[in-house]
Amino acid sequence: GEGVSIFALPQEVVLRVFRYLGPEDLCRCGQVCSTWAQVVKTGSLWRHLYPVRWARSDYYCGPPGDLDQEPDEDLVKSLQDEGRAYQEWDEDADVDESEEASEGCPAISAVQREKTLLNGMIQNLLPTVGPSVRSLSLAYSSAVSSKMVRQILSFCPNLTHLDLTQTDVSDSAFDSWAEFGACRSLEHLDLSGCDKITDRTLKILSFGLGDLTAHANSSRSKLLKAPPSPIKLQEEHSLPPMGRSCQELIFKRRPGGRGSGCGPVHVWVLDPAELADIEDTADWSRRGGVVSQESGRGSVLELQGGGGSCCCRRSQRRSFRTGFSSSHWQYSSVGDARCGHSTCCTSDMALWTVREQCDTPATGGAVDFRTKCSFEGDSCPKRHKRTDQSGACRALGFLSLSGCCQITDLGLRCLSQRGGLPQLEHLNLSGCLLITGAGLHELVSVCPALNMEHFYYCDNINGPHADTASGCQNLQCGFRACCRSGE
Ligand code: FES
Fold it and tell me: Which of 241, 303, 370, 383 is most exposed, with the fewest beta carbons within 10 Å of its own?
């Protein structure tokens, strides 16, 4: 009979065929015709992304579990050499920016390919397939920037596996997680060697993972009695109109009250339209809280320390024995920031509150909430849902902060809050020189699934499960922070 053109195949059949192709072939097919270009942008074809490998002609695209757990040492060394060569070339780029200048150097060309590939993905692919992406590995990438990661994460809200090992990213890379549910599916996060990461990232991470306590808090608050009489919340005329969202009451710990040492001010941001919140408010006031009302906008509410009697404030600066530049490990201006020590900042003062922006018809501007968006479900422009009703499970099972030397107990506390990390099995805090045993105890107490064989922290910390936990992994590493490097 007459030959049938391949272009006559139904799209479902074309898609089935495309499932056998790797990323390189898919990109070629996408250039054949508009129909194929459309099929190529089917989300299920792009579940697992490895742009660093793809830029080096390794087109593996299966799930990350199929990769070796231990990275190939030769590959790591080669990627690091490429990164160094690219950085040197990039620093001289203003002298000679021509593409040709890099042509003779395969190492620089590989990083340039990687950069082009990342930009192409961000501009052309992820806006369409982002919600389908489950795994992303950018480990040892020299081309990726915090801005790129921020863009990628904003397109990929359903990631379960994220590997940013030994990249140059900073806290700003995770800004998109500051929205509710933005990383709620995350199960595996590797930030090994990301030494620009601070507690801010852990705060955002903990927020993005959801709140297991929201339902309990909500139920508890419904049981609270109305405030006893001399407590006045606000005069009626000064209360925000009921039913009008986007207002807030902020309750601050009374200066000089219990535990007013160096801890953060205890702040409660409320939605006055929610009766349960008002009852919570009354309970807080009865226990000594001070009522005030503020308004404002922003993404994350920073809480500042109250008093000045903490050990860290007295010592002002504290250095650590290390083979690296000592100034790198010192507290900087602790007088201006919280010390981060669990022993100084008692847990009842550590309520972190995050603000979220949501344009509403009522105000036409940004609004702030404690645990939820007032516009729930379908009526919310951003489809926010209360964390206690949307199945938050804080499913993180793997977390590596190895070499993230700016992390303090405050960061660990952020992870401990909102229900802890009930499914965490692997926790690597090697080279986290500023954390203490108290901070570790607090976190471990809310990680019931932690496997001691996969629990790593500095050998010099008197921490939990000292007999069974694994020690620091960075002793022999050479390129990640460790207080005993050089010994
Ligand atoms: Fe202390 Fe490695 S960080 S032993």
Answer: 241
Output helix, strand, coil percentages for the chain, rounded to the nearest 5.
Answer: 35, 5, 55
Site to probe by mutation for ligand 1, drawn from 320, 484, 487 as the one with most ligand atoms within 8 Å of Cβ, is 484
Threshold 0.90, pTM exceeds:
no
Q: Counting every residue, how long is the chain?
A: 487
Beta 250-253 vs 268-269: how paired, if at all? antiparallel
Residue 84: predicted pLDDT: 75
Quote the ligand 1 centre to 171 CA distance (angstroms): 23
Residue 275 has pLDDT above 70, yes or no: no
Task: Using pLDDT thresholds of 50, 70 and 90, give the confidence band for residue 16.
Answer: very high
CB 343 within 8 A of CB 436: yes
Yes or no: say if 447 and 424 are a contact pair by the CB < 8 Å rule: yes
At residue 178, the pLDDT reads 81
- Report whether 184 contacts 158 (CB < 8 A): no
**Residue 157, number of CB atoms within 10 A of its CB:** 18
Name the residue with the closest Cα to ligand 1, atom 1.
458
Q: How far is the CA of 441 from the centre of ligand 1 (A)?
A: 17
Look at the block and give the residue holding tokens 């950085």: 87
Q: Write out the DSSP string of 10-38.
A: -HHHHHHHHTT--HHHHHHHTTT-HHHHH
Taking the centre of ligand 1 as the mean of its atom positions, its distance from the CA of residue 321, in whole angstroms, is: 10
For a mutational test of ligand 1's pocket, the pick from 329, 406, 428, 482, i.e. the residue with the most ligand atoms closer than 8 A to its C-beta, is 482
459 lines ligand 1 (CB under 6 A): yes
Q: Is the ipTM of this complex over 0.90?
A: yes
Q: Which residues pair with 457 in a beta bridge?
A: 429
State whether the beta carbon of 164 lies less than 6 angstroms from ligand 1. Answer: no
pLDDT in tens, 86-118: 777 776 665 555 555 556 677 778 888 999 999
pLDDT band, very low/low/confident/very high, at 2 (cuts 50, 70, 90): low
Please tell me the distance between residue 437's alpha carbon and the centre of ligand 1 in angstroms: 13
Among 334, 37, 299, CA closest to 182: 299
Is the CB of 45 inside a 6 Å radius of any atom of ligand 1? Answer: no
Instruction: Please answer whether residues 409 and 439 qualify as being in contact, where contact means their C-beta atoms are separated by less than 8 angstroms.
Output: yes
Per residue in 299-351, pLDDT tens?
333 333 333 344 443 333 333 333 333 333 333 333 334 445 554 444 333 33
Taking each helix axis as running N to C, give the angle between helix 106-120 and helix 73-91, from 0 to 180 degrees, rounded to the nearest 10: 90
CA neighbours closer than 13 Å in the CB half-sphere of residue 210 = 24
